[in-house]
């Protein structure tokens, strides 16, 4: 695929698909369904910025999870660069989880 045929929406879908392969080590649900990904931005240079949170500020994977997300997103051919920004505003809560995640964890 040449760079001219890929659009940012399609790339966004690819990014989400890759993010869905990353799991929280303490909860058997991917970080997208958990609601840890707040936003994915793709600019015209195919630079990606991901705004995400963690379940807690002292999460045991606070150091490694953002790096894993960055590396996996950078592995997509069309992505020029990727940066992950961690935020705790708003703080993560179970309300951010998808129905699928709640079902998986027996919360429905």
From TrEMBL:
UniProt superkingdom: Bacteria
InterPro entries: Fe-S_Maturation_MIP18, FSCA_dom_sf, MIP18-like, SUF_FeS_clus_asmbl-assoc
Residue intervals passing through the bilayer: none
Domain MIP18 family-like span(s) in chain numbering: 13-86
PANTHER family: FE-S PROTEIN MATURATION AUXILIARY FACTOR YITW
NCBIfam families hit by this protein: SUF_assoc
Protein name: SUF system Fe-S cluster assembly protein
Organism of derivation: Sediminicola luteus
Taxonomic lineage from the root: Bacteria, Pseudomonadati, Bacteroidota, Flavobacteriia, Flavobacteriales
């Amino acid at each position: 695929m040449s760079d001219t045929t890929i659009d940012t929406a399609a790339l966004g879908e690819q990014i989400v698909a890759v993010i869905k392969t990353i799991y929280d080590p303490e909860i058997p649900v991917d970080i997208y369904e958990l609601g840890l990904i707040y936003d994915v931005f793709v600019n015209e240079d195919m630079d990606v910025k991901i705004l995400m949170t963690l379940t807690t500020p002292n999460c045991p994977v606070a150091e490694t999870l953002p790096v894993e997300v960055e590396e996996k997103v950078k592995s997509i051919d069309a992505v020029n660069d990727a940066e992950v920004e961690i935020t705790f505003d708003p703080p993560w809560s179970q309300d951010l989880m998808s129905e699928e995640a709640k079902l998986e964890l027996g919360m429905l």
